[in-house]
Request: fold
Amino acid sequence: MRRVFHPTIHLGDAKGSGATRPSGVKLLLLNQPIYRPDLLFQLWENSLARVCADGAANRLFDAFAPDQSETRRTYLPDEIVGDLDSIRDDVKSYYAREQVQVTFVDDQESTDFGKAMRSLKSSTYQATTDIMVFGGIGGRIDQGIGLLHEILREHHHDPQTRLWLISESSISFLLLPGENIIETKFSQGYFTHQAGVLPIYGPATITTQGFEWDVNNWFTSMGGRVSTSNHIVQDTVCVTTDKMVLFTVEIAHDLPKMG
Reply:
């Protein structure tokens, strides 16, 4: 099966390589430091609903200096969801005053990510096509591995919704068995050349096109050969795989300015 990915759509590319912007894009913020507020605000503008997973509300609140109260009010999430053991009292009070819904979910069998995902997919919000997950990769290793586990589980539950893991340095997403076309617009400056195809969910055999070090029917596995620190050399790259793999590419520090 052939699939086409347009990650630049989420980074401010209005045309998206000729693609139509998905109608149900949502943003899920996780509890990680926000080192690139410019990137967060770009994702915010490109989403229809925004939800903070518990302590992510602290990070959003702290992204603004005390003298930026009006700007902070521009970036109010639709909802804060979780067991609420991480959100600070002052932050919870602030968002409650601003009429942000604060939802307590008493379920110790699921993470705050899982709780927020259930909310985003509920009838409260418009039907979902894509969910951008901001944060979660780059902090504690157990949380990062846990998030990679969570996106696999979410895919099994709902294979029609695409999850995009976005940190201050990279965007990552699942590639399913078959031919995967990725429109990187590399020459326009959305990404650096650094990329990887990672068999984190099990061994796979891959064929690539558009990389500096392309491979053909190449067996890859954790503990064996892995394509990390490869280089994109074309605007469109292709990864054909017989098993699910994770694709990751480094986001440019200065994104193109859109007119």
Summary: The chain has a mean pLDDT of 90. Residues 5 and 182 are 5 Å apart (CA to CA).
